[in-house]
Design goal:
With 468 residues, the protein is an alpha+beta fold. It folds into three domains: 90 residues, Beta Barrel (OB fold (Dihydrolipoamide Acetyltransferase, E2P)); 53 residues, Dihydrolipoamide Transferase; 201 residues, Chloramphenicol acetyltransferase-like domain (Chloramphenicol Acetyltransferase). 30% of the residues lie in helices and 21% in strands. The chain contains eleven helices and 19 strands. Helix 9 crosses helix 10 and helix 9 packs across helix 11. The chain is globular and about 80 Å long.
């Protein structure tokens, strides 16, 4: 019988590896096409992979509990005739696209020979200047002559095809580096600042090994290297806690997110009248829905209404221009305790009532804590609401998720003594709202207008808007 190799599929745009949770079929078992075959855990979701073919599971290559990269061989099948040809291309489309566009870029500073895929592409290219595949090209010194630079540029892809922020491109330019030589580790192959810094360090180590004198570092490089954290001291009783997939993904996402120029603004909101209105309608809501009506539903409604008033905050930055989103898909941050944080998305939030938003919030929170979110639940967000109030904070500094322009944190609601407009002193229920924004997309005045729109809705419109 023909054989079929099942490889770890690509389970999301930013997912690079998966952990085998449980094999649902065992070697020797007959498997029908689309039968659930194996449970796979990623940093974002747990999912079950169906069998792409009919046949017999011959051999399992990755055992339960093992974590492997996308594209790793998972299992081998004996298949019915005709199944292999139809299934094999579909199985291989997942792990390969990310590397394909950059496969022809020469690795001129790699410490060892280029990957086999690049060698085969170079050997078939008509360029006469291409070096033999068995020898890696020598790293050019920083002061290389203009003719060699022109030749290298002609062999490389257009720099406009390389995904990188202007700040990263500037850093590479300051060190005389062609950014197309760097393999990006960011989302979609984006070249990050760390990629450039690692490339610089690797080039210097090669120069030192070759006995060449390393030129003095430019000031920008000195700042970049000094910004790296010093190694943690080893103390008695220390325990090394291995990084989970989720913690590693959070770290990578936050580093990527923080590369944008962040700014923050804070505004006070008098929630007294809204909290009274909530008390008035919550019992009916509880009887009808079976769960409580949280202030978060009103805050989410205020955010959606404010986005309609200030649509600039519902945008994304690209090197070609700003992308203004018509849909309002509200990311809702869910804390998972020591396990980390995840941000599922409530789609078409602008079409939902307060009750609909509360159902959406309850649904994503419950499924996030039960680890039952799907990849679709985590994609498509255009603006994020971070409800830190239940944690007791009064002012926070939220980081804008990659691909969005702003995030709003709603802090805890607390009774405070407030001087009212008629100069009397009253006990009011006050809350701070904080916006974090990408200053390339949103200016301070725009952020203030958005906060004002949220505040005004909560203090006025929100006290009378029907729940249903």
């Amino acid at each position: 019988m023909p054989g079929f190799e099942l490889k770890m599929p690509k389970l999301g745009e930013s997912v690079t590896e998966g952990t085998i949770g449980k094999w649902l079929k065992q070697p020797g078992e007959k498997v029908n096409k689309y039968d659930l075959l194996v449970e796979v855990q990623t940093d974002k979701v747990n999912t079950e992979i169906p069998s792409p073919v009919s046949g017999t599971l011959k051999e399992v290559k990755v055992q339960e509990g093992q974590t492997v990269p996308i594209g790793t061989l998972l299992a081998v099948f004996d298949t019915a005739d005709g199944e292999t040809a139809a299934a094999q291309p579909a199985a291989q489309t997942g792990p390969q696209p990310a590397a394909a566009p950059r496969a022809s870029a020469p690795q001129s500073n790699a410490p060892s020979g280029p990957p086999a895929s690049q060698q085969s592409q170079r050997s078939s290219a008509p360029t006469p200047e291409a070096p033999p595949p068995s020898r890696p090209p020598a790293a050019p010194p920083q002061g290389s002559s203009p003719p060699s630079t022109a030749t290298a540029t002609a062999e490389r892809p257009d720099l406009s095809d390389v995904r990188a922020t202007p700040a990263v491109r500037k850093l590479a330019s300051e060190h005389g580096i062609d950014i197309s030589e760097i393999d990006g580790t960011g989302l979609g192959g984006r070249v990050s600042r760390k990629d450039v810094e690692d490339f610089i360090a690797e080039r210097q180590s090669q120069q030192q090994a070759a006995g060449r004198v390393v030129p003095a570092q430019p000031q920008a490089e000195s700042r970049a290297v000094s910004a790296r954290p010093a190694p943690a001291p080893s103390l008695a009783g220390d325990e090394l806690v291995p990084l989970t997939q989720m913690r590693r993904a959070i770290a990578n996402n936050m580093v990527q997110a923080w590369s944008a120029p962040h700014a923050h603004a804070v505004m006070e909101v008098d929630m007294t009248d809204l909290m009274r209105y909530r008390e008035k309608v919550r019992n009916e809501f509880l009887e009808r829905e079976g769960f409580d009506l949280s202030p978060a539903a009103f805050i989410a409604k205020a955010v959606v209404d404010a986005i309609r008033t200030v649509p600039q905050v519902n945008s994304s930055w690209t090197d070609q221009g700003l992308v203004r989103h018509r849909e309002i898909n509200l990311g809702y941050a869910v804390a998972l305790g020591e396990d980390g944080l995840i941000v599922p998305v409530i789609k078409d939030a602008d079409g939902k009532s307060i009750a609909g938003l509360m159902r959406g919030i309850r649904d994503v929170v419950d499924r996030a804590k039960a680890r039952r979110l799907t990849l679709d639940d985590l994609s498509g967000g255009t603006f994020t609401l971070n409800n830190t109030g239940p944690l007791g904070t009064i002012v926070s500094s939220p980081i804008v998720p990659p691909g969005q322009a702003a995030i709003l944190s709603s802090e805890s609601i607390r009774k405070r003594l407030v001087v009212t407009d008629d100069d009397s002193i009253a006990i009011r229920q006050m809350m701070n709202i904080v916006i974090g924004f990408d200053h390339r997309v949103v200016d301070g005045s725009t952020a203030a207008r958005f906060l004002t729109a949220v505040r005004d809705w909560l203090q006025t419109a929100g006290t009378s808007v029907p729940v249903y």
